[in-house]
Amino acid sequence: HALDIADPIRTQAILRRYGFQFKKSLGQNFLTNQRVLSEIVDAADLQPTDIVVEIGPGIGSLTEQLARRVQQVIAVEIDSRLMPILDETLAPYDNVQVINQDILKTDLKTLLASYPGHGAVKVVANLPYYITTPIMFNLIQGEIQPDRLVLMMQKEVAQRITSKPKSKHYGSLSISVQTLMATNIAAIVPKTAFVPQPNVDSAVLVLQRYTESPYRISEPELFEKIVTGSFQQRRKSLQNNLCHIFGKNQRDQIVDLISSLDLPAQVRAEQLSIDQFIALTDQCAERFA
Ligand code: SAM
């Protein structure tokens, strides 16, 4: 083929020949912009020995770019109507395994084990936006421990994930991801890069596993409870949110605890750094154990 799968002319021809109808419920917005594909591939920093897991290959536009650069691609697609299309479009690439499954139910560990001797494990995907966060957390907390993830998602979600304290997007999502991975937005992507066009702008988010984590969380469950609870009512003070978690009868303890961390009495959660949330958790573990 002279044209890449993502070329708008070839994409249209494929879709027409198979009479393919997009399913909105599956988040089907296919990429037809070569520049955006290069941005995704560049952000993945691919090495020939890498093994890449792709979620939702669609008709294979991104898959093709990955297959040209790495040893092996495993592409997991839920929509069985795309199987005959992928058979055809990816026929030139013998290093792609397409799996017709729901990514949330896929045993990636066993799949990867069938390719011994591979280099880094990377996840690259133009995600179905309706399940962005469950997919992301499954991958970063699951068994396969990818070295890097490059994920196209809604711009606003990417902003929330990468936000730092005192910014309006900073919240429990920023903290839970940043404690596990280094985060970075590699590109902002306009709606026009897709067919059909989604309702929102998108961003390419890069998550890189820390070589050494800057955070040591000794009580992960309590940390999680405190972080989500502290942002429960964003506009209210940390003091009030903590009273909600630990009980109003603990207010004196909580006031004392906040001042012992050198924080102003009326501080709000969005002003606390991750390290300050860790210190807060350690204090709560001691006082409310
Ligand atoms: N990678 C293609 C591209 O960039 O043109 C398609 C991306 S499209 C945004 C998302 C893809 O994920 C669709 O092909 C959709 O069918 C698939 N998908 C949706 N839910 C899924 C799930 N739970 N597991 C696997 N794939 C899913």
Automatic annotation (TrEMBL):
Pfam families: RrnaAD. GO terms for cellular component: cytosol. It is an enzyme of class 2 (transferase). Its main location: cytoplasm. Keywords: Cytoplasm, Methyltransferase, RNA-binding, rRNA processing, S-adenosyl-L-methionine, Transferase. The keyword rRNA-binding does not apply. It catalyses: adenosine(2085) in 23S rRNA + 2 S-adenosyl-L-methionine = N(6)-dimethyladenosine(2085) in 23S rRNA + 2 S-adenosyl-L-homocysteine + 2 H(+); adenosine(1518)/adenosine(1519) in 16S rRNA + 4 S-adenosyl-L-methionine = N(6)-dimethyladenosine(1518)/N(6)-dimethyladenosine(1519) in 16S rRNA + 4 S-adenosyl-L-homocysteine + 4 H(+). It is found in: Cytoplasm. Residues 36-211 form the Ribosomal RNA adenine methylase transferase N-terminal domain. GO terms for molecular function: 16S rRNA (adenine(1518)-N(6)/adenine(1519)-N(6))-dimethyltransferase activity; 23S rRNA (adenine(2085)-N(6))-dimethyltransferase activity; RNA binding. The keyword rRNA processing applies. Belongs to the class I-like SAM-binding methyltransferase superfamily. rRNA adenine N(6)-methyltransferase family. RsmA subfamily. PANTHER family: DIMETHYLADENOSINE TRANSFERASE, DIMETHYLADENOSINE TRANSFERASE-RELATED. This is Ribosomal RNA small subunit methyltransferase A. It comes from Lapidilactobacillus concavus DSM 17758. The lineage of its organism: Bacteria, Bacillati, Bacillota, Bacilli, Lactobacillales.
